[in-house]
Amino acid sequence: MTINGQQFKRLVFCDSSLALEIERNLECFRGEGIFPNMVIRYEREIWVEFVQGRLIKEVDDSLVEKVAMFYSRLYSEASRLVETNTTLFPDRLDRDLYFLNQIGILSNGLLGELRKSVDALQPTHCWIGFDYTDPVKKNFVLNPKTHLLCAVDVEGLVSEYLIGMGAAKALVRWLNPFKNEFFRLLATKGAPDIQAYYGFIELCFLAQWTKRAFFERDWKAIKPDYFEGYRGL
Q: Which part of the chain is CATH 3.90.1200?
């Protein structure tokens, strides 16, 4: 929307508690340039600054570095190393896999093999913190003023998350050819080391994403073949 020549983005949520949570998350990165700055929250409504920039068209080394910079900043903010079994993610992963089996997406045999693989992949400790869960290319702009990648769809910014699940969506969908370079850049920028147990992270993402796609009736996003790579690990 435009008021007095100034552009803003207005978001209305289902309730005020969700709007408050998003406001709190955004304020942690105010002035960083990787998200639009908050303008105001009123009950269940949020206004943020409108960020002009160039949409992502080509994925190259320069863009991969900007994506790594974006996620390294997120993952370095108030992240903490915890015992994995004290988090909700192992139970959630098993629940999601079982549900996918119940509705016929995963066979009984594949479910059994995936559960064995989870036992091998699950780390003793994992990093919890901020993440950005919707890194589709249309949700980013390249800001010509800051030369940073800015995520304009602010609903995807979450806290208390298994770090890496957000980046996993990009790595599965469009960043996969640059996976090794992405992790190398994350490490050089001082982000928590998640590469050693990325298989567990990606499996958590795939199960959650496929389950959500089922409820949203996004049939094209449901690809059981994604899970085949986790047989017999």
A: 55-228
Q: Are 196 and 82 in contact (CB under 8 A)?
A: no
Cα–Cα nearest to 169, from 131, 141, 197 = 131
The alpha carbon of 123 is separated from its chain's Cα centroid by a whole number of angstroms, namely 19
- The pLDDT tens digits of the residues spanning 36-76 come to 999 999 999 999 999 999 999 999 999 999 999 999 999 99
Which class for 135: exposed (0-12), middle (13-18), buried (19 or more C-beta within 10 A)?
buried
3-class DSSP state of 83: strand
SS (H, E, C) 7-42: EEEEEECCCHHHHHHHHHHHHCCCCCCCCCCEEEEE
The residue to which tokens 């249309």 are assigned: 138
Contact 53, 143 (CB under 8 A): yes
> How far is C-alpha 28 from the geometric centre of its chain's CA atoms?
17
Distances (CA, A) of 161 to 59, 116, 126, 130, 167: 26, 24, 10, 6, 12
Nearest residue to 160 (alpha-carbon basis) of 126, 196, 190, 137: 126
Q: Give the integer Cα–Cα distance in Å for 177 and 173.
A: 10
Average pLDDT value over all residues in the chain: 96
Name the CATH architecture for the domain at 55-228: Alpha-Beta Complex (3.90)
